[in-house]
Amino acid sequence: MRIVAGLHKGRRLEAPSGRDTRPTADRVRQALFDMLMHSDRVEMEGARVVDAFAGSGALGLEALSRGADHACFLELAAQPLAAIYANIKTLKVEGQTKVVRADAAKPPVAPHACTLAFLDPPYHSGLAVPCLEGLAAKGWLEDGALVVVEVAADEAFAPPAGFDAVEERPRGAARLVFLLFRSE
């Protein structure tokens, strides 16, 4: 697994061992960030990012490589947390990151609101909706924030109140769902 583009292009990332974590494939990450970089819904330069169910932290770290100002990683399990810390150290982005050991479906109060969120819950877990509701309730999302949810291609998913679906893109075994958050 590597950073696909930007300042840290080509740098290797550590992935957590075991079967409990499913890192977003490089080709899916490439497609996702290509869409984001050509979207008028989010400005990557200067973005504040939350990476929920962070795993290796690849999505948040890719955003930093492409110009985001800050990334916060929500992860509960020990092995993924170790990988996130190792990847942050490898890329030397400690000053631009915060790692929060927490259940992404029950997040703590946010240190600041974010303009971009990535959610990559385990497929077919039903955790995407509780996570979205928790992030909204705990101040993690700025009004108008773009949220990208990765679910299984065959997984039923409907966003909760306050989130408007704006686009869906199938990518192999995954489906990327793009949502806009409205705080009112």
Structure overview:
- The protein has 184 residues and is an alpha/beta fold.
- It has one domain: 3-Layer(aba) Sandwich (Rossmann fold).
- Helices cover 24% and strands 28% of the residues.
- The protein has 4 helices and 7 strands, in the order αβαβαββαβββ.
- It has helices at residues 26-37, 58-65, 78-91, 128-137, and strands at 48-52, 70-75, 97-101, 114-119, 141-152, 163-171, 174-181.
- It has a 7-stranded mixed β-sheet, with helices on both faces.
- Helix 3 (78-91) links the parallel strand 2 and strand 3 (97-101).
- 43% of the residues are buried.
- The model has no long low-confidence stretch (mean pLDDT 92).
CATH superfamily label: Vaccinia Virus protein VP39
Mean pLDDT rating: 92
Q: What structural class do helix, strand and pairing data support?
A: alpha/beta
Gross morphology: globular
- Radius of gyration over all CA atoms, rounded: 15 Å
Fraction of residues in β-strands:
25-35%
CATH architecture: 3-Layer(aba) Sandwich
How many domains comprise the coordinates? Answer: 1
Specify the number of helices: 4
Which bin fits the share of residues in helices? 10-25%
Main sheet properties:
7 strands, mixed
Distance between the termini: 39 Å
**Which CATH C-level class is it?**
Alpha Beta
Tally of strands: 7
- CATH-derived topology: Rossmann fold
Contiguous runs where pLDDT drops below 50 for at least 5 residues: none
Topology (elements, then pairings):
Layout: H1 26-37, E1 48-52, H2 58-65, E2 70-75, H3 78-91, E3 97-101, E4 114-119, H4 128-137, E5 141-152, E6 163-171, E7 174-181
Parallel strand pairs: 1-2, 1-4, 2-3, 4-5
Antiparallel strand pairs: 5-7, 6-7
